[in-house]
Amino acid sequence: LFHSVQLAPKDPIFGLTEAYVADQRADKVNLGVGVYYTDEGKIPLLQAVIKAEEALVAKHAPRGYIPMEGPSQYNLAVQTLLFGNDSSLIKDGRVVTAECIGGTGALRVGADFIKRLNLNAPAAISNPTWENHRGIFEAAGFDVVEYSYFDSKTRGVDFDGMVKSLESFPKNTTVVLHACCHNPTGADMTEAQWRQVIDICKSKELIPFLDMAYQGFADGIEQDGVAVRLFAQSGLSFFVSSSFSKSFSLYGERVGALSIVTESKDESARVMSQLKRVIRTNYSNPPTHGGAIATAVLTSPELRQLWEDELAQMRERIKSMREALVSKLAAAGAKQDFEFINAQRGMFSYSGLTPEQVERLQKEDGIYALSTGRICVAALNTKNIDKVATAIARVIA
Ligand code: PLP
Ligand code: TYF
């Protein structure tokens, strides 16, 4: 049966983590996977999460099935974070939300749903993007095309290239956009550029699909919601996948959501009924635990404040690591100006390191990064940063 099954290539990010784990060097550093670590090099368990979880456990609640789309309190909490407290879209019943298995699950449920609309149009992802965007949309049966996004000279958004690409796409192309903290480049659009993208989506009748995996990691929860809010004002129908993996440090609990903005309450009811069919035939209904934690935190004023403070601490620590890396690279004799690292947003820096330089870091120093030069700044800390800065300065010299 399996004679002709070929060995699949390793996932580049998980493959790198395997190599890191197998590395015997005590001072090895994993800047590969997109995970936030504390200054002690640990994945944090947030105090807000601990408190919510303790209260949940004390309840000894039964674990019956929850609705296919997840609990309504969870879905409303997600909508409020994304669209704001007094969103007219929410009030008018124009947002449909389903709890999904992480942001990944939300992307896949959304992709499956769009595929069932039989629009016969491709999905467009940014060049470059998070590796799994292509995989998810291809697995859902889409032809996947790319739009220009990054300008390696300015290290910013190649906006002219992006506009040209978007304008060339056929009607009903699904355009996957990073709502903030672009993975892997850290380059985000300005508000004015977002407005232009919205105009193109309108005039070319494209389907916007915003991927929000890092809300709160750039400037704050509200500030990072700007793209979603602009789309919300546009009158367009669109998709948002969101995730609490990073913002709650709940990676393994797989807590995310798919939200769809429709034209009316009536449309919402029909869309939700079809969304449930997609979910039913994939995994039936989401797990209980992670979503219950997020709901408890988001709906308790006290826990919510605690969470926002902890999220701000994560965000600030990343920023301070960016600043430290820039100054330590200069101190280590790097000729190149690395100021761009401070302008990049979110967990990553697209460092500009070549595949050969990345390989040397791994071989000679036990420092693991993606071959594209993406490094996870959120994995730097006060103990490993000198080593990392010295090693980078050496391999680029
Ligand atoms: N989208 C982007 C751009 C991401 O970087 C990630 C995670 O790294 C996700 C979605 C999905 O994350 P998860 O499925 O862990 O919630
Ligand atoms: O580092 C990244 O870009 C991600 C990490 O379910 C990741 O690929 C790992 C597991 C997962 C989602 C994202």
UniProtKB/TrEMBL annotation:
User: Does this entry carry the keyword Transcription?
Assistant: no
Q: Which GO terms describe its biological process?
A: L-phenylalanine biosynthetic process from chorismate via phenylpyruvate
The question of whether Transferase is a record keyword is answered with yes
Q: Which UniProt keywords apply?
A: Aminotransferase, Pyridoxal phosphate, Transferase
The protein's required cofactors:
pyridoxal 5'-phosphate
Domain Aminotransferase class I/classII large residues, every copy: 27-392
Spell out the molecular function terms from Gene Ontology: identical protein binding; L-tyrosine-2-oxoglutarate transaminase activity; pyridoxal phosphate binding
What's a single GO CC term here?
cytosol
- Supply the EC number(s): 2.6.1.-
Domain of life, per UniProt, equals Bacteria
Which family does the record claim for this protein?
Answer: Belongs to the class-I pyridoxal-phosphate-dependent aminotransferase family.
Assembly, in brief, is: Homodimer.
The protein here is known as Aminotransferase
Top-level taxonomy: Bacteria, Pseudomonadati, Pseudomonadota, Betaproteobacteria, Burkholderiales
